[in-house]
């Protein structure tokens, strides 16, 4: 029974650590399906995390913090959109600039406003999203196997966790079952045909980039006011790049994105559990080696274990309307 409990706790941690990766990967999915490659997922998440924590601390309201995080993500997405769509700049360079801007600006504003080395003060209970207990979870927790799964693994998460996983089927429906999704995918594949049909290519791309901003802002808010109790400088620690790797690994498909991010979330949860543990034969593995597991997997998968991942044909190419 102890082994079962350990597995449940590991999977519970996996779910919590998957959420920011899943939201960021879905954000990149919308943007890149429209033809706008987004290296700036990391920066948008980081900026959203700071905005959410700062407003949640000042107001003591987690919902206002979440809205602030989303707002900051949208502003960063607008900057990216204007640079890469309106002015037809290099999308990769624009994304890298977003990352540098967020990394520097969050530390500068954090130090200027709170004088805590770029961090925000710890949030009080009302400033964070609390766990939600689903119906009958308490009554069923002592039921063998199923009770533990329902009580520990399914119940007891905050609202953003449930929103993130619900977005996967919603994204699939939106992209593959609606006119908007058809137009969005066509914009990333053949923008000239979309333009010929009387649909604004740049308008579609801006919509996709703004959706990306909403989701990355939400991912950042989750990190600082749900998973943690405040903003810590550089707290995304490469999650945006792992999300981008998961998106490529999933070949830009919503359900595959879910499985890919769960895999990365599991490895992240596993490395936390393995720190300081004596393994059979091997002994105690250095903490640094364990912490590198998710990044090693990223390199290994992208080095040749995903097959041929072909992105949208018009991805990374600014569209110039013919006259």
Description:
The protein is mainly α and 323 residues long. The protein has a domain of 220 residues. The protein is 70% helix and 1% strand. The protein has 14 helices and two strands, in the order H-H-H-H-H-H-H-H-H-H-H-H-E-E-H-H. Strands 1-2 form a two-stranded antiparallel sheet. Strand 1 and strand 2 form a beta hairpin. The longest helix has 32 residues.
Taken in chain order, the helices and strands follow as: HHHHHHHHHHHHEEHH
Instruction: Determine the oligomeric state from the structure.
Output: single chain
Outline, from the CA principal axes?
Answer: globular
Low-confidence segments, given as residue ranges, are: none
Cα end-to-end separation: 71 Å
How many distinct beta strands? Answer: 2
- Secondary structure class reads mainly alpha
Top keywords for this entry?
14 helices; 323 residues; globular; mainly alpha
């Amino acid at each position: 029974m102890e082994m079962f409990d350990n597995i449940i706790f590991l999977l519970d941690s996996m779910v919590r650590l998957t959420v920011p990766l899943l939201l960021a990967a879905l954000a990149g999915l919308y943007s890149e399906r429209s033809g706008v490659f987004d290296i700036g997922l990391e920066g948008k998440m980081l900026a959203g995390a700071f905005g959410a924590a700062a407003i949640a601390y000042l107001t003591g309201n987690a919902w206002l913090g979440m809205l602030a995080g989303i707002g900051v993500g949208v502003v960063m997405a607008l900057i990216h959109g204007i640079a890469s769509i309106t002015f037809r700049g290099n999308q990769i360079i624009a994304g890298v600039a977003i990352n540098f801007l967020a990394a520097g600006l969050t530390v500068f504003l954090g130090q200027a406003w709170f004088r805590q080395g770029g961090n925000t003060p710890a949030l009080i209970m009302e400033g964070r999203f609390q766990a939600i207990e689903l119906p009958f979870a308490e009554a069923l927790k002592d039921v063998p196997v199923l009770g533990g799964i329902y009580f520990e693994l399914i119940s007891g998460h905050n609202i953003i966790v449930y929103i993130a996983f619900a977005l996967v089927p919603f994204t699939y429906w939106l992209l593959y079952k609606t006119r908007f999704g058809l137009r969005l995918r066509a914009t990333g594949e053949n923008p000239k045909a979309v333009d010929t049909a009387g649909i604004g290519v740049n308008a579609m791309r801006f919509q996709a980039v703004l959706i990306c901003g909403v989701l990355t802002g939400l991912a950042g808010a989750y990190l600082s006011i749900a998973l943690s109790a405040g903003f810590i400088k550089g707290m995304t620690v490469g999650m945006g790049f792992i999300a981008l790797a998961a998106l490529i690994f999933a070949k830009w498909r919503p359900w595959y994105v879910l499985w890919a991010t769960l895999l990365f979330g599991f490895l992240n949860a596993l490395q936390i559990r393995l720190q300081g543990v004596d393994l059979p034969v091997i002994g105690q593995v250095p903490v640094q080696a364990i912490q590198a597991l998710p990044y090693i997997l990223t390199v290994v998968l992208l080095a040749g274990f995903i097959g041929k991942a072909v992105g949208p044909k018009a991805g990374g190419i600014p569209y110039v309307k013919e006259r």
